[in-house]
Amino acid sequence: MIQLAGALLCAIACVLGARTLIHWFQLESYQFPGYFRTLKRQGIRGWIPGFLLGALWGAVTVMTGLASGSEPFRQIVGGLAMVGLGLLMDRRARKQKAKKELVFTPRVKRLYGVSLVILTLAGLGLAALGRRIGGPWGETLGAGMIPLLLPLWVALCGLIAWPIEKAISEMYFRDAQRILRERTDLIRIGITGSWGKTSVKFILGAMLNERYPTMVTPASFNTPMGVTKVIRTRLEPGHRIFVAEMGARHVGDIREMCRLVHPQMGLLTSVGPQHLDTFHTQERITKTKYELMDAVPDDGVCFFADDGGIVTGLWEKTEKEKILAGMDPQRDDVWAENLKSGPEGSRFTLCFRGGERVDCETELLGELNIRNIVLCAAVCRRLGLTGKEMARGIRKLKPVEHRLELKRNPGGLTVLDDAFNSNIRGAEQAFRVLKEFPGKRIVVTPGMVELGDREAEMNRAFGEAMADCCDTAILVGKKRSEAIREGLKAGGFPETEIRVAGSLNEAADLLRTLAGSGDTILFENDLPDHYDEGSI
């Protein structure tokens, strides 16, 4: 009984100390390769909690053993001391400000429960093995292996819980399929792309709402389970159109999303080098994004954003009904002309093959946003909206949060919040928009991630593109910023105007000394917590 109590106390302490590790696992969508990449990237930070718990266990059990010689006393006191330290670690992790907090979903709660059971059983087993080999001190050493290998235990517990999670997910998935299958009146639209899909989703939803009750997946819900939850909890009988954003980090991810949604229309916003750490090659990215068009039925419609590159090439090879939208009147079915963009918004003429032209205005900034609007206009026209309805919807558009969002602050300081962006094309647009603002211009950025072997190369290009748009550059992350610094210098940017901050909080402190009334600050990209060099 004493052995069970000691093992349980040790397991409780380890589960408490593993909060940051479980948070990383959740941020990586419970994918083991991503979790281990985070563990490798964060270095010793992932191992510190377990080492501290193991060291405390060893120190307390040795001291109590020398003092009393009582094995039960040694185990209970050591276990209680570990629980106390685990509580302190858990409390410290809770207090740390995270961009995306650990969410105690049912899955996380189940993972905590499985971890408690597995670590208790493992503690009993290792202690018994140690006792057989080395007596009481061997038992102490065996039990101490639990905290010392804590990151690996979290992964093992996630693996053991996986069949349970798979069964639960499939049950909900099939229920969402049933809901959509019974809605024969519902038009289903899928959107994917390396970037731009969230912006296009909200633009399309706002425009379609001028005629049809439209449901779009909220925020960045773009995984099978995220969209499943939306279908089961938010889709209402009055909705006539359902728009689903479809994200992907692996080949087959879009195919799985289409197995759920069965889209009648598909939109491809872009194809480029995103998530190269999981896709590895551009060809695999292209194949995955095209899975959406493969899933559109023969009587459906495929919509492509004309990029003059990969997406245009995919449009050319598609044999289903297809529509191309962009800025080229010679090639596109829908395009924009007479674009005039400034700090207060954009004006343009929306043009359709056949001669119709509609004058439009919007608060959205930059050419990429206009391209997104044009792509959505192509869908709206196919669904019967008039030019007047589209212009009205475009006029009502508001910037999507953290996507080139203009904020006027008291004291005359202007902020361009493009923190969600993480691709070179979007960054180049943000730099062009920044150049249109008067006064001192400051860029705060950690650069781009998830680019595999090309990360340093693309961050150098990122820095070079930034060089002529700003007066001061604040780079976040002392290790990651080196490639950006090289790009800035290659672009002729003065090295004296480059500042490096260890974290976003340090960057904010620098801004207080550098920025003043009339200045403009661009926040370009913001890394997830598990990429933060200052995270614990």
Characterization of this structure:
- The chain has 536 residues and is of the alpha/beta class.
- The protein folds into 3 domains: 2-167; 184-396, UDP-N-acetylmuramoyl-L-alanine:D-glutamate ligase; 405-531, Protein-Tyrosine Phosphatase, Chain A (Alpha-Beta Complex), CATH 3.90.190.20.
- The chain has 19 helices and 15 strands.
- The protein has helices at residues 2-17, 19-27, 32-42, 48-68, 71-95, 106-148, 150-182, 197-208, 224-233, 253-261, 276-279, 282-295, 310-317, 367-382, 387-396, 424-435, 455-466, 481-490, 504-514, and strands spanning 187-192, 214-216, 241-245, 265-268, 301-305, 321-326, 334-342, 345-352, 357-362, 405-409, 413-418, 441-445, 472-476, 498-501, 520-524.
- The strands form 2 sheets. The protein has a 9-stranded mixed beta sheet, with helices on both faces. A 6-stranded mixed beta sheet has the order 10-11-15-12-13-14.
- The protein is globular.
Q: Topology, please?
A:
Elements: H1 2-17, H2 19-27, H3 32-42, H4 48-68, H5 71-95, H6 106-148, H7 150-182, E1 187-192, H8 197-208, E2 214-216, H9 224-233, E3 241-245, H10 253-261, E4 265-268, H11 276-279, H12 282-295, E5 301-305, H13 310-317, E6 321-326, E7 334-342, E8 345-352, E9 357-362, H14 367-382, H15 387-396, E10 405-409, E11 413-418, H16 424-435, E12 441-445, H17 455-466, E13 472-476, H18 481-490, E14 498-501, H19 504-514, E15 520-524
Parallel strand pairs: 1-3, 1-4, 2-3, 4-5, 5-6, 6-7, 11-15, 12-13, 12-15, 13-14
Antiparallel strand pairs: 7-8, 8-9, 10-11
